[in-house]
Task: structure prediction
Amino acid sequence: MLQGPTMGTHYRVRAIAETGDREAIRGLVEGRLDAVDRAMSTYREDSEIARFNRLAAGESLVFSEETWAVLELAWRVREESGGAFDPTVGPLVDAWGFGAPGRNAEPMPPGEDELTQLRQGVGAIELSSKDRRILKLEAHTALDLSAIAKGWAVDRVSEDLTNAGYSNHLVEIGGEVRTAGHGSTGDPWRIAIERPPGQSDAEGSEDTLPPGLQQVLEFTDGALATSGDYRNYWERDGTRYSHTIDPRTGRPVEHALASASVVHETCAIADAYATALMVLGPDDGLRWANENNIAALLLVYHEDSLEELPSTAFRDRFQTTN
Result:
């Protein structure tokens, strides 16, 4: 197994290959990850995203083909989800203390005037596919691809491995996973969905699984992404603030959805859909998943236990847990 730091988290790659291929695989993987990070990071001042975010209102930037493809995909999911997913929500995430500016500070809820101002920047861009150009319409608008870029990087690494002849592999970045072929035993890859810490079994979960796991899914070719609210939050005066910010309201979500896991052909789409579902919540999220044939598993808090809400597509694909 190869592993290392990337994109503010870690990558992990398992490829069925000859021992001597290890360094060649590492070079291929890390070269691709560095290229994605250089283009799409919000923390690197030289990235395309950072350059766009420094623009004034009325200015525009032409993007590279790869970054443009991610931006178009993100905008498509925004439209599909009715704005629950939005690549311009970053300034609101920062304002609530979950982005880089507030990471080392004592977080405080932003004031109403600040929220009103920042909400004006959500979605305030114009995309021109003719020349891969994006126009910034509001000074407070900023792009943030963190809810789709890791999934995109997983897809690109997986495709690079396949093109290089490594047709049996698993790629994971920060919990977003894509598999191809089979594992070393010839069996499908087995991918776990995590159970939120401190929660007892969800109704419908497999009670023979190790602690901390909700389900284990078998894959040959496919991707799994999970978004949850149980790792990144803060509390003040008895109120819990989730890092999942609803772009439509500018505020942290307040529903009981603990996590959303999505299975899809590509990890980028799974990544974005999982984020959209976390914003939509259990009722609207399950309805949206069923209406759009999305294979999703929602875990919902019920006091000290969890409830599983599988979409129809998820239930049809995974009839049993292992």
